[in-house]
Amino acid sequence: MTKGTELPGTAGPGTGPFTVSAVDAEGVDLSSVDASGFTTNLLDQRPDQGGASTVDELSIAVLAIAGDTAKLRLSPK
To answer: N or C: which end of the chain has fewer CB within 10 A?
Structure first.
């Protein structure tokens, strides 16, 4: 995934789609705005952070970062 990639959100109320807002050596930044205007930011997500981040029913794990590209795993929680 690279900057600007859109990831699906959760079904029903909750988090809208995520957008990859940055990928660099510091980590991956993701942002989301749901239908009500609520904003969620996941900043500096890294493969070595100890596990996936979970927002509502979506689990997001950064598996690897190489330059400006990241490999992520998305799974329902």
So the answer is: C
